[in-house]
Amino acid sequence: MHLNQQVLRIEGLKKVFWSGASELVLFENLSFAVDQGEMLAIVGSSGAGKSTLLHILGAVDRPSAGDIYFARLRLSSLSENDAADFRNKEIGFVWQFHYLLPEFTALENVAMPLLMRGTQKIEAEKEALSWLEEVGLAQRSHHRAGELSGGEQQRAALARALITKPKILLADEPTGDLDSRTAEVVFELISRLHREYQLTSIMATHNFGFARRCHRVVRLESGRIEEVVPETLSD
To answer: How many domains does the structure of the chain reveal?
Structure first.
């Protein structure tokens, strides 16, 4: 694999939260790059800011200082509408909780991003069924979200994230609520789809076993980020 083209460039990133007059600096001066086709793991203790960092990288949140570039596009320069358009076109999100809409079927949930784009229902649901087949859920397509197991819910959420053909997949503890066997299935699925669809993937995880299987690992701790040799991570 040749990683030679930067997809994301992060420069001097800082995030501050305020509680009354008190300033909490979650992180500052974060600078790193993510190459096209790379699978990057972000590790660090709870509360270190991994989720917030993913939100900022996906233009869901804004940094207090610093810049993020998607190719030549400066994300902090985007209006709210342009940021929403960027997220819809370029980013796929998978979170620890699946956020499937309980009143809709798996098929309807997966089709939702295309319907929000204005795609005709018959076309959106055809594409959704194709993605459910991709993640092994075609026979569960007409089951509501609450009728799916935890692993099935995450697989449906992954199909929903990728139906728009994003360039970047952001995954925040995607196996955190799953038992070890199901977590392995979901991680392997993410890895396969990453390869087959030539994604650039960034995954926050507490699972060092999964982190070691990514191309690179960075640790976010005490407001700083550092490169980690994957093989040195120990459970």
So the answer is: 1
